[in-house]
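Bumping my old thread because nobody answered last time. Still need a sequence for this structure:
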């Protein structure tokens, strides 16, 4: 299955929701009056594009109608897609710098698919011929450590972990960095906890991990990758804001797009966070983790 087909299949639920509602909206005359434009804005919000982004998109639609006088279904849809693409920006990937240790800090709340994404990324980088190591720093959940070890076995990737539940995550990342340096590792994937009693504890733990990384690997390339779950809707936007305050964000990955009828959340997150979406989880298989392609996403989301 090609990438375009993967996006179309993964976003089928969202596309059917949006296309069906849009077609009903424009069925009467094929042209949009003020009331219909208001209904279209509501549709965007219901597709989880978010209030702010939906208003912004509709401002572009109305601006183009005033400029051209064309309020046809085709023109309105073209304006929606145009602004969505601007919000998502140019295609980006998690850049791996050759000849250096690249440390990817995997962050996000529990249940978003953070550990699974770590495993899938390990498989991808191994396939590219890179030396990969994973660090099990979500030490507060035995299941998370076990899950990462399973991915390690599945992909032939070494996992640095401590057997004691509740061990200090900073000590795990310390061990992982020195193991990575000794082995000439290209990519170290650090799986972190997503919930530590409250936001203050989470902030302190992530900050501590970051300090250890910067101290022990001053020449490494360090990037933070937030993993959010499309099925959580606008909670994903709140998570992006919260983690951005805690540790800063470089990239965003969105999982479970295939399980949601409201994949427009990618628009909301990109609009509110200003950070590039680089990965899309479009299924359960290893190969279903794809580089996020804004054009394919919008074309798959907004059906002509």
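Sorry it took so long. Here it is:
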């Amino acid at each position: 299955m090609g990438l375009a087909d993967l996006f179309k299949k993964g976003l089928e639920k969202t596309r059917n929701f949006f296309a069906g509602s849009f077609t009903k909206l424009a069925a009467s005359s094929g042209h949009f009056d003020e009331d219909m434009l208001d209904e279209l804005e509501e549709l965007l919000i219901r597709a989880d594009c978010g209030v702010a982004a939906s208003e912004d998109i509709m401002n572009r639609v109305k601006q183009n109608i005033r400029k051209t006088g064309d309020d046809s279904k085709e023109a309105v849809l073209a304006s929606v897609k145009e602004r969505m693409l601007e919000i998502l920006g140019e295609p980006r990937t998690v850049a791996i710098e050759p000849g250096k240790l690249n440390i990817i800090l995997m962050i996000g709340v529990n249940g978003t698919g953070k550990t699974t994404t770590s495993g899938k990324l390990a498989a991808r980088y191994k396939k590219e011929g890179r030396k990969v190591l994973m660090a099990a720093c979500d030490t507060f959940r035995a299941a998370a450590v076990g899950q990462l070890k399973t991915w390690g076995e599945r992909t032939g990737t070494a996992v640095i972990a401590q057997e004691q539940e509740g061990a200090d995550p900073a000590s795990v990342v310390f061990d992982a960095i020195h193991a990575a340096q000794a082995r000439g590792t290209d990519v170290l994937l650090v799986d972190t906890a997503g919930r530590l009693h409250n936001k203050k504890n989470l902030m302190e733990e992530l900050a501590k991990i970051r300090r250890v990384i910067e101290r022990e690997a001053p020449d490494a390339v360090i990037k933070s990758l937030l993993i959010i779950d499309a099925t959580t809707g606008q909670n994903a936007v709140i998570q992006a804001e919260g983690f951005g305050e805690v540790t800063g964000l470089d990239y965003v990955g969105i999982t479970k797009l295939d399980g949601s009828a409201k994949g427009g959340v990618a628009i909301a997150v990109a609009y509110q966070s200003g950070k590039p979406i680089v990965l899309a989880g479009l299924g359960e298989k290893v190969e279903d983790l794809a580089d996020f392609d804004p054009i394919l996403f919008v074309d798959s989301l907004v059906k002509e």
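The beta strands are 102-107, 132-137, 158-160, 187-192, 221-229, 251-255, 277-281, 289-291. Let me know if any region looks off to you.
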